[in-house]
Fold this protein.
Amino acid sequence: MIMQKSFLRYINIVTYQADKFAKKLPRSISLDELVSAGFDGLLDAVQSYDPSRRVNFEAYAQQRVCGGI
């Protein structure tokens, strides 16, 4: 349940980053593909986040989403 809430709370990171990447990439790469890859990155962030490292989750998730895209 906690994972689901975290995932839903940060969906805006995925859509923002996917849109940003889409503007720089060829039109042959669809926004849907970028969003899908970003969701994979967000899911990875939610599953692998370690709060004991004292890193802000949003910053961590942003990096994982960009890496996924």
